[in-house]
Amino acid sequence: MKHPSYEFSRAITRRPASSIAAGLRAVDSGNPDLDTMLKAHEAYVAALKSTGAKVIELDSLEAFPDGQFVEDTALCLPQGAVLMRPGAPSRLGEVGEMAATLRDCYEDVREITGPGHIEGGDILVTGKEILVGRSDRTDAEGVAELARIADEWGHRLREVFTPEGVLHFKTDCSLMDAETILSTKRLDASGCFEGYRVLHVPDGEEAAANAIRFNDLVLMAEGYPRTAEMLDLQGFQIVEIDNTDCAKLDGGMSCLSLRF
Ligand code: CIR
Prior knowledge:
Blueprint: E1 10-14, H1 34-50, E2 54-58, E3 74-77, E4 80-83, H2 92-105, E5 109-111, E6 123-125, E7 130-134, H3 140-152, E8 157-161, E9 173-177, E10 180-183, H4 185-188, E11 197-200, E12 212-214, E13 217-221, H5 225-233, E14 237-241, H6 244-247, E15 258-259
The chain binds citrulline (CIR).
Citrulline binds next to loops.
């Protein structure tokens, strides 16, 4: 049987739009380049497909420069999908653009209706529970609304906190297998992963914490050799993807797909 938190048969991605230069970012380190971003995107999609999964590749949305970060628009669980309500006003409309695709894939599609906000990047599904990090994008009301749906579907949801200055909870962590989490030291220091086996990304490689376990692979950002070596020694099969341009928009491996 597939493990629902890291063994997947499908993924949804969206091509980066030529409007990407207008994408949100906490610190301006220059605009991303569309061509190199498209190349990296192709490598990312190819890695997902290489595991045998079907990838639904959606067209770019010029009106939504952050539209390629599809993870923030929904949460996919075995029982159904939940459409999110992003805390970034410019991203609210991305949810409606994702809805039809999810309705084709799932019989049960719920919706966070507000007034709270919640983004998929703040949600880590581990198999034994759903961890949701409050952040600048995800508030208590958003978490509470998701908790009611999760409860109905038989999931335990635990509210945790994203470190100050970090965009999303999963900017700083990822699930590696049923009991192993890759995390920055600063996030793990909050105590939120008690009971899990935690692998710390080495100091100076914090940006490598946003990885994804997708079937037999771990997709991680290129340029973090000590993290790559650690994961390799732990027996994970890693694929390194150029994340230079996505990183300029605070994006990483998890943001670029919905996986189910
Ligand atoms: C944003 O600020 O919303 C986008 N520029 C980046 C979103 C990254 N998403 C994610 O980590 N799940």
